[in-house]
Amino acid sequence: MQTPLDKLAVKRAGAMSRIVGKGFLSTKRVYVGMATCEIAAGSEEVKEVFMQAIESGLTDVWISQKGCVGRCNLEPTVEVIEEGKIPIKYGKINKERAEVIVEKHLKNGEIIKEWVIE
Q: Is the residue at 43 inside a domain?
């Protein structure tokens, strides 16, 4: 028979597995602008590129969305936050540029300076 502490340990292990499995402890985070205006500008396609990269084996990256940043002329926007580094905000990101961000920035640590919002 399981003791209350045994039951708690099983629940904790399950919770930790879900937290790790969803990427909440990843050292890289990608936020795609998903306000109404950004969706109209194509951010759903952009987010899908990052989601597919994770499904294809990209690790240690957590994908989420963010609201309006008030920069409609630069939409869709993507922000990459890496542990111990300054956040990088990219503007005017389309599907093709998102693929480049995956390959260059997320996989190789190379910032694409010409797309950075200052």
A: yes
Is 74 inside a domain boundary?
Answer: yes
Q: Which DSSP string corresponds to 57-71?
A: T--SEEEEEE---S-
Q: Is 6 within the bounds of a domain?
A: no
Quote the CA–CA distance of 57 and 41 in Å, as a whole number.
27
Task: Provide CB contacts within 8 A for 69, sequence distance 6+.
Answer: 33, 35, 77
Contact 79, 91 (CB under 8 A): no
pLDDT tens for each residue of 17-68: 777 766 677 899 999 999 999 999 999 999 999 999 999 999 899 999 999 8
Q: How many structural domains comprise the chain?
A: 1
